[in-house]
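In response to the reviewer comment on reproducibility (Comment 2.3), we provide here a single inverse folding case reported in full, input and output, so that an independent group could reproduce the run without further information from us. The structure tokens appear first.
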């Protein structure tokens, strides 16, 4: 009898252990948290991508051709529009103006230019220089660190040979730094100011024979189209 009771107790202990293991739900909690972690990761990645897109450095070049009634008057008006949009003229002739306009005023200047005549042709080209700019920034930082090390060595140098050798390397490094700093400033200026060229020419007028065809066209148009 005691033996049977002991077996029953052992059986009950085993069943209790199995029930506790099933009720713990350790595996289900891990699965439930996984989608939240994935969402948090993707949301963070999305914000990072948006931030990177907002930080892209773009340079724009625009070329516009206009057909106008009075080219000289158009040239004067364009010059005034350049000033009102806080830009400056790079080159000016009797038939075109090349100007640099702040990037934030580019669209406004182009709209004002379009209103001066009939647009015959217009092209707008954008170039992303972000990666090149960042690479140059990294190289520039490395060169400045190298320069600091050379300056430290120069302070510790005792003989003329070492001093001359270090100064030669410093000159080389300083030259590279100056070149990279110039490239960075040029890149920043290219992003800040768009390059816009507006060409303009007088509208072509029909000759004596051409006016005959113009009259015929207007007559035929009147027969078929009434306003």
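Designed residues, in position order:
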């Amino acid at each position: 009898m005691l033996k049977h009771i002991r077996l029953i107790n052992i059986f009950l202990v085993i069943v209790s252990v199995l029930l506790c293991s099933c009720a713990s739900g350790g595996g289900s909690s891990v699965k439930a948290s996984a989608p939240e972690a994935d969402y948090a990761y993707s949301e963070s990645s999305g914000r990072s991508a948006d931030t990177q897109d907002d930080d892209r450095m773009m340079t724009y070049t625009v070329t516009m051709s206009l057909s106008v009634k009075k080219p000289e008057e158009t040239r004067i008006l364009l010059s005034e529009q350049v000033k009102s949009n806080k830009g400056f003229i790079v080159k000016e002739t009797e038939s075109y103006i090349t100007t640099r306009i702040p990037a934030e005023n580019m669209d406004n200047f182009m709209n004002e230019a379009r209103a001066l005549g009939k647009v015959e042709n217009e092209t707008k080209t954008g170039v992303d220089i972000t990666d090149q700019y960042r690479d140059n920034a990294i190289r520039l930082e490395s060169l400045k660190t190298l320069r600091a090390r050379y300056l430290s060595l120069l302070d510790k140098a005792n003989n003329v040979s070492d001093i001359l050798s270090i100064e030669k390397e410093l000159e080389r490094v300083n030259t590279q730094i100056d070149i990279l700093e110039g490239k960075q400033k040029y890149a920043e200026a290219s992003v800040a100011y768009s390059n816009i060229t507006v060409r303009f020419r007088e509208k072509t007028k029909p000759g004596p024979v051409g006016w005959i065809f113009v009259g015929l066209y207007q007559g035929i148009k009147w027969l078929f189209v009434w306003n």
